[in-house]
Prior knowledge:
The protein is α/β, with parallel strands linked by helices. The chain has two domains: 7-30 and 300-411, Alpha-Beta Complex (Aspartate Aminotransferase, domain 1), CATH 3.90.1150.10; 42-297, Aspartate Aminotransferase, domain 2. 39% of the residues lie in helices and 17% in strands. The chain has helices spanning 7-11, 39-52, 62-81, 96-107, 129-138, 155-161, 186-195, 207-210, 215-218, 243-248, 283-299, 301-320, 349-357, 371-377, 393-411, and strands at 20-21, 24-25, 27-28, 90-93, 116-120, 141-145, 168-174, 199-203, 222-226, 237-241, 259-263, 266-269, 325-327, 339-344, 361-362, 364-366, 382-386. Helix 2 packs antiparallel against helix 11 (283-299). It starts with 6 loop residues before the first helix and ends in a 6-residue tail after the last helix. 48% of the residues are buried. The mean pLDDT is 96.
Amino acid sequence: MSSDVDVKTIRRDFPILSRRLGSHPLVYLDSANTSQKPESVIDAVDRHYREHNANVARAMHALGSEATQAYEGARARIAGFIGAAGPDEVVFTKNASEALNLAAGTLGARLGPGDEVVVSVLEHHSNLVPWQMVCGRTGATLRWFDITEEGRLDLDAAEREGLINERTRVVSLAWVSNVLGTVNPIARIAEQAHAVGAVMVADGSQGVPQLPTDVSALGVDLLAFTGHKMLGPTGIGVLWGRRALLEELPPFLGGGEMIGVVRMEGSTWAEVPHKFEAGTPPIAQAVGLGAAVDYLTGIGMDRVAAHEHEITQYALEQLGGIPAVHVMGPLEDVDRGGAISFTVDGVHPHDLMQLLDSRGVAVRGGHHCAEPLHRRLGVQSSARASGYLYTTRAEIDALCEAVVWAHDFFTGKLRGR
């Protein structure tokens, strides 16, 4: 699939991409960590604070009404963006981690000894630690998918071992790995989960920014994602849920706005989604995320995905041509997202990250909040490059040139390239 995204024009919408770091232009390849923001998102947040700032759902004055309309309008646009049945299926949180904790904390009320929760070894800590905590509290058992040598879920081994079975109550998986880029077959696994009466949860933090999203086609019951990886502000995340399931689940946090009637003897709860949104919510952040959704919709997520495919394939080819570089995960851009993690012979990822930064190239180094996965792969940490809709081939070339230079700096083995 060929992309017709006009990257040169898109880049003009992102003020930060014109920065220089010393004598080098900024080459931003850390979008899996956080994306950059277009002018329209920056302006939407600025305009909200300048013209419409007030609390929502409380004040009856004009500003309060305007703030509420903006906040709920953002909810409606996000619901449309992911194919939700309605805005009442969209719960605002502060990030995907809180959304996944909400899922684990409320579904955990159903768990007990003998029940099982299934995750995978490639999960971000945000989709692992909350389930560990819940299983520790309830006596449920945590089990997980292993991966193949290519870095994909080992579905054959899971079937042989009966990983998803009549004791399974929850299956919670990343849609797209933030380390290996692997796109997991969520719809297929959701069918298996539903066949045994389990709830299917997906961490969409890497998937929703990169891929067209239709929650009904994805087959999940709950989907978590975060705004700052999809051009939106920090401090805003989403938990989408089937309304019937959200109505069944207990509140996660107590406080203002999540209540129906409060008496000293007890309280009743507001309707969904407000039952899960205690206190003053991230209003301006939601407005910014709504503007980000408008921007992505204007480009078209099919086109965003096509560009991501092209730039990832090019990066895999170019990095693969450097003898000292070892890419982790799938080596072809088939069922693969944009995160490319790799190691370089003789160079620690933290040192590599710092040397690349000295040439204006921003990547991440570490275990990327996926320590068990790195342990499974036998590496302590890795470097990770991740592009997005504004990434160019020239930036991938700059990355590769900087990697060769860094390797030469430490070892001299590629001197003269």
